[in-house]
Amino acid sequence: MASTGRQSPEAQDDTQWRTAGDRIQTLLDASSGSGTVVRERTEQLAVELTDLYGAALSRIVSLTVDSAPDLLERFASDDLVASLLLVHGLHPHGIERRIADALDGVRPYLGSHGGDVALLDVADGPGGVTARLQFTGSCQSCPSSAVTLEFAVEDAVRSAAPEVETIEVVAAQNDSSTTTGLISAESLMSRVQPKVSASAAWHTAADLEALAPGEVGGFSVAGVPILACRVGEDLFAYHDRCGGCGESLAGAALHRPMGAPVGQAVLRCPRCHAHFDAVRAGAGLDDAGSAAVHLEPIPLLHRDGVVSIAVLAEPSGVS
Hints:
With about 325 residues, this protein is an alpha+beta fold. It has helices at about 10-20, 20-30, 35-65, 70-75, 80-85, 95-110, 145-160, 185-190; strands at about 115-125, 130-135, 165-170, 180-185, 200-205, 215-220, 225-230, 235-240, 255, 265-270, 275, 300-305, 305-310. It contains eight helices and 13 strands. It starts with 8 loop residues before the first helix and ends in a 7-residue tail after the last strand.
């Protein structure tokens, strides 16, 4: 059930270019050790190269618009090309369209927590561009709702629209559990800091793609034991720790209760026999008091075309 963690060549290529910015910054920082003049010349070299490739890319876009406008849409749908178009202000879609498309990408994950998100508006103010979002459904009551915002929604919005300075969340009008009004992203994040430290980060997990519908597998990502399963076309990931007995879920299998609709899937702990909803945030299913007994879901998204999960880069200590 364990995974080697080896990535496919395609996943390795995607990881390579996605981390290029960090490597460039590291090289620039290293040049500081050789003195101010070297640092300034190195930065100027980077600017000249960026401008050169930007000018060439601008000309390619102009030629494409004239001769093959449909091809420009294909450029925009490619994560690598789209990122370069954004850097040089050449992306064919406006900020609202880009954010809306990004939210479409995280909706399956939010839906697994019984919630949804909508873009209300994008405003340009003195403090920069602000995107206002509204969550609906039961997303705020699930065990990892705040993690969902921090790792899934915010990451998707900022990747698609790097010019956004602030993300604000507006409480749903029919949600009596929250106060109507604006909630800053920083305020919402502070509520989960004891649970999610700053060391939490996205890690590629391309091996999860190999899971077939109805299959459950164990993986190790950044030293953290992960239990993943595929229900239909959708992937779900949890910490490999039973909410009932605290032991590993190694050997667990997916079941569909008799008479249950297609798409409902239950994970059964092979040790204490506790049952969990594999699709809806790992909620306990055994009795009325099972709300406190649940699996710990892990944000899982396709980022830049690669399956990625957000975990703390340290072992969880599961036996």
